[in-house]
Amino acid sequence: MPERHEPRGFMFPRSPEGRDSIVPAPPWHYSGEMLTIEYRTEPARVAELLPAPLEPAAEDPGAVAVIWADWQSCSDSFEELLDPVRSQYKEAFVVVRCRYKGDTYSRCVYIWVDKDFALVRGYHQGYPKKLGEIWMTRPVTVGRAGPRLESGGRFGATLSASGRRLIDATFTIAEPSEGAGFVNAFPMLHHRFMPRIESDGSDALQELVTMRGYDVELGPAWKGEAAIRLHDSPVEELIRLEPKEMIAGYWRSVGTFWKAGTTLGKRRG
Amino acid sequence: MPERHEPRGFMFPRSPEGRDSIVPAPPWHYSGEMLTIEYRTEPARVAELLPAPLEPAAEDPGAVAVIWADWQSCSDSFEELLDPVRSQYKEAFVVVRCRYKGDTYSRCVYIWVDKDFALVRGYHQGYPKKLGEIWMTRPVTVGRAGPRLESGGRFGATLSASGRRLIDATFTIAEPSEGAGFVNAFPMLHHRFMPRIESDGSDALQELVTMRGYDVELGPAWKGEAAIRLHDSPVEELIRLEPKEMIAGYWRSVGTFWKAGTTLGKRRG
Amino acid sequence: MPERHEPRGFMFPRSPEGRDSIVPAPPWHYSGEMLTIEYRTEPARVAELLPAPLEPAAEDPGAVAVIWADWQSCSDSFEELLDPVRSQYKEAFVVVRCRYKGDTYSRCVYIWVDKDFALVRGYHQGYPKKLGEIWMTRPVTVGRAGPRLESGGRFGATLSASGRRLIDATFTIAEPSEGAGFVNAFPMLHHRFMPRIESDGSDALQELVTMRGYDVELGPAWKGEAAIRLHDSPVEELIRLEPKEMIAGYWRSVGTFWKAGTTLGKRRG
Amino acid sequence: MPERHEPRGFMFPRSPEGRDSIVPAPPWHYSGEMLTIEYRTEPARVAELLPAPLEPAAEDPGAVAVIWADWQSCSDSFEELLDPVRSQYKEAFVVVRCRYKGDTYSRCVYIWVDKDFALVRGYHQGYPKKLGEIWMTRPVTVGRAGPRLESGGRFGATLSASGRRLIDATFTIAEPSEGAGFVNAFPMLHHRFMPRIESDGSDALQELVTMRGYDVELGPAWKGEAAIRLHDSPVEELIRLEPKEMIAGYWRSVGTFWKAGTTLGKRRG
Predict the structure, then answer these.
(1) What is the pLDDT of residue D214?
(2) Count of pairs with CB atoms under 8 A, one residue in C, one in D
(3) What pTM, to 2 d.p., does this model score?
(4) Is any Cβ of chain A less than 8 angstroms from the Cβ of C229?
(5) Considering only CB atoms, which chain B residues are within 8 Å of C31?
(6) Beta bridge pairs of residue B98
(7) CB distance from C133 to chain A under 8 Å?
(8) In chain A, fewer beta carbons within 10 Å around the N or the C end?
(9) Do A52 and B4 touch (CB under 8 A)?
(10) Is A165 in the C-facing interface, judged by CB distances under 8 Å?
(11) How many CB atoms lie within 10 A of CB A227?
(12) What CA–CA distance (Å, rounded) separates B43 from B55?
């Protein structure tokens, strides 16, 4: 009698040869461009997004980063790079900071992407991803249809979901920068959860996890002035994070690598 | 000091008022049209999709149903029906049967949808959903640009993902039918799982669940001849379910209701 | 020496066998569902959309119809019906009335569709089509996720383009209706034009044409109360047609057939 | 009595303030990246795409270029750059050469784009555009998820339309290059046409035009080995241009500017 093989694969659907997984198994390599816009909102508006026992950051607790990224990503096979529908995606996400057991973390509270593999990869990492339509100006080196990476270069960035514009932003380069902001600079602290199929208000999976990228390779960063407008939607509470004071905008090329995070706590379902 | 409120919502992202959840809380109502095509493949090709301790169905173990559905769905608020981008979606899915503890179940092994709320609602129910582009002919009552629901009415149905056509099918109505096939007629038996964030090959969530629709309201069914072609893709193993013998096709309007399933087993992460 | 064959096809691209045409050759058959919302705006806002010598309608010159349609269409081969990505499309369009040489016509001033074949077919007919994302509630016969075609049935309809919501509307059925409105009830009077490639402000093609559907087959119509909101966009002037007084809404299934229109006038480029 | 103003705008829809035009008025600026793959097919397969009096090129008459481009474009207002959904688009197109009155021209025979403004801008220029889904690998400067612009850098490029993959291609950089191929290097020779609305087999507009970009600013070019596979579709004859011998692939950044072309001939409708 032939040996029985289990369906396999990193993620669903698990299949005989394991090729069907909606996202290939880690490690995952990323190369892309990030536009970060930082501002301050009412600290209470950040605090209300933090489930206990997370606490607001000790300093500048109302700081928010809204980030657009235009990525290529791939597995260790690198084969996705030659079928770029499987490697290119864009995302827009909102990051705040929090404290847990005395340490400061970054935490993604809202995020939109434009591919299914990025959506489910995010669920593995605790990112609360939805689908959206993300656009960001690209710098150019020839012609007039785009900014140069130099003082005066102007960028636009937008987010829409379900046919509604949610964010409009602009960024103008002023000067080179050492870094690209402080809000998204800590290890991420995320919850991963899945409600019980009994739909009884409790979760079958409820984990506190932390993660960060490794082998980060950074291009030169640029800093400048930014403006941002948040728009309302019946299915988003994003506008509660109303900007009170702009901090700055940043643009940088980023390469990174992700393999695994760490489970900090787990509530048994 | 003000009372601290936790972010809330059925699904991620959990937010201050709970409006951000990618899918509203159950119960969910569904009304739509389903085209079911049943055929037989090699029974071993079905068996290789069943993780232990699931066993192939005792009778006709190579039976497969490929189903297209064009849905409206909504929560108990019914508000999604007036913003139809949030209620309409299409899906194509592949169902087989299996045995577990002496009972026969239906099991969805592959499924594609075209909206994010449907994707994540499926994860709650154990459906291994990907995004796809789904098309199915609609019956009409006036004009010549579509089949009538009567003998001779011809329908097409297709599925694409990542810019590749995966399935082409046709169906021709022969006669009224009592039912709409036997493969998708049992309670569903699904696994819900999420790999540990440590990406170490084990799952943080690993559940066996069962579920079915309630208050099913059925329109008249039609039966007829069907043809189906499966196409290859580097990221799909669908073509392993190669048709050896066609059974029949069915078309029917379906209304249903879903609130909760039942956890049959759980492996602690 | 072999005979030389010209590339052929109804529309571009013309190709050796003529199969590449972005839209198959007429005649075209249509079957679908139409939701019509009529209201009155300032008559001057309609008049400013009419190039001379077109004049506003003699009666009720501020009447506007905003129409959503969910179509299947096909050529005389009917083959598109079995590959429904080539036959199904949705559109939302704005119609006003005008007078020309003593006769009253309907005229489409803005229109959005979601497929390229519909876009270019529209250019042939003088419709000024753009791409958009169109949604309209569908009536259902089973289940609770949709309205019945009966008094109290509620429908939503929306239009977005470039990630911006442009129109939100609702319609509630009150009673059966003889007709489905008066604004879109006349033969269409359209301009077809194409600027000279010299981009010198003159048109290489500049025609006044009229057209209408033939062999129209109508299902029962329903009438009721409608509400509509127009939203702003940097690339649309739709909001100039601000509603001052609602007239009514109508829902009806429509089948029709189109083969040719008539050129009324031509300015030589 | 107030002066009557005509609806205005470069392209349809013409509107009171002229803001509705599906594409802003020229001039248009372009900055982007182009991947060109050149090969030889049977010369007869190129000749059958050339309407009389166009003749095949005197030398290498079977040469074909398939080109992917990832563009930003904008008008002289440059405002589209800050709302990048209106400036970014991708295209894939097929170019051959021909002779007319003793001169050699390039001619685009098939082309797919992913935005409506690019589609209609193409119609102004005589490009026979359809909508498609276009992907091409981007070079990166940091991280491992993409090729460097250096020897060994590997790129993939794909085209799909109506949910069918039409082209898969790969390119590997071997060395710097003086140019980026010879097939798309001549002024374009296009037909612009629109069938009469009488749909009687004759064209209301039928022009022979020529055009080229100006103020072209070129980045360094790279040359290397390319592979390409064409796939069948019921609505495309692309596979008739079957590759018999590969020539080479090229990658280059390109900036250009377009304002106007020249009408060479006109057949009165």
Answers:
(1) 83
(2) 179
(3) 0.97
(4) no
(5) 140, 142-146
(6) B56, B105
(7) yes
(8) N
(9) yes
(10) yes
(11) 14
(12) 11
What are B126-177's pLDDT values in tens digits? 999 999 999 999 999 999 999 999 999 999 999 999 999 999 999 999 999 9
Q: How far is CA B12 from CA A123, B66, B83, in A?
A: 9, 30, 21
- For position C5, what pLDDT does the model report? 80
Can you tell me which residue has the tokens 């960060």?
A: A212
Mean pLDDT in residue range A29-44? 98
* Confidence (pLDDT) at B2: 52
| Contact between A143 and D32 using a beta-carbon 8 Å cutoff | yes
Chain C residue with minimum CA distance to A158: C163
Q: Which value does ipTM take for this structure?
A: 0.96
HEC assignment per residue over C146-197: CCCCCCCCEEEEEEEECCEEEEEEEEEEEEEECCCCCCCCCCEEEEEEEECC
Phi then psi dihedrals of residue C220, to 5 deg? -60, 145
Looking at residue C213, its pLDDT comes to 85
Q: Which helix (H) or strand (E) holds C120?
A: helix C116-125
Quote the CA–CA distance of B203 and A14 in Å, as a whole number: 13
Q: Look at residue C87 and tell me whether its pLDDT is greater than 80.
A: yes
Buried/exposed code over B49-63 (b: 16+ C-beta within 10 A; e: otherwise): bbeeebebbeeebbb
A231 inside 8 A of chain C by CB: no
Closest C-alpha among D151, D163, D181 to residue D233: D163
Mean pLDDT across C112-127: 98
Does residue B170 sit at the D interface (CB-CB below 8 Å)?
no
List the one residue out of A66, A98, A100, A120 whose CA is nearest residue A239: A66
- Determine the distance in angstroms separating the CA of A135 from the nearest CA of chain C, rounded to an integer: 10
Answer whether D26 touches C (CB < 8 Å).
yes
Q: pLDDT by residue (tens digit) across B33-59?
A: 999 999 999 999 999 999 999 999 999
